[in-house]
Design a protein that fits this description.
Length: about 180
């Protein structure tokens, strides 16, 4: 299994996304070294290139946010639980999530951590496509530019849902483990 994981990681890290990511990091680091006058000059160029936001009302932004905000994560979580014929307790106990935390997740105002979303995805035994939709609904992603995210994605591709197995794969690449 580890050989298959290594091939998967190498295949995905060698795509152009990693180079773009490293270039963007260089650009950010380089910008930190610039003087404030130079940064202001660059900002005015950006404003002319992309258009200045100009005058706007705070109410306009608030209306835009309220009209476009989606609370899909909780709806999708409980849809998957129902579709798979599970009880809430089956899900949170399987991945050692505290009952109180799971209760907070029921509240649409609560935003779970990426780790919690991954653990819930493992508990629900989602396939890769379902998990992509699930993690996106919580405003996260598993980009293919780092080993940790590739290992997590690999687990959903291969149907590896036991935390112990996932941790073994993460540990083999010195990545942060799930605590349980």
């Amino acid at each position: 299994m580890k050989e298959k994981l290594l091939a998967y990681i190498n295949e995905n890290l060698n795509k152009s996304g990693v180079l773009s990511f490293k270039r963007a990091k260089y650009d950010v680091d380089h910008a930190r070294c610039l003087s404030s006058a130079k940064l202001e000059e660059m900002e005015s160029v950006v404003d002319r290139s992309y258009g200045v936001l100009g005058d706007f009302e705070a109410a306009d932004i608030e209306t835009f946010i309220n009209d476009n905000k989606e609370d899909k994560f909780q709806k999708l979580l409980f849809k998957y639980i129902d579709d798979k014929g599970l009880k809430d307790s089956d899900v949170y106990k399987k991945v050692h999530i505290d009952r109180r935390l799971f209760s907070k997740i029921r509240n649409e105002e609560y935003h779970p951590s990426k780790e919690t979303v991954i653990l819930l995805g493992l508990a629900l035994e989602l396939n890769e496509k379902e998990f992509d939709e699930f993690i996106t609904s919580a405003s996260y992603s598993l980009p293919k530019n780092n080993v940790y995210d590739l290992i997590i994605r690999f687990c959903f591709v291969e149907g590896i849902y036991k935390i112990k197995k996932v941790n073994e794969l993460l540990d083999s690449y010195n990545c942060k483990l799930f605590s349980y």
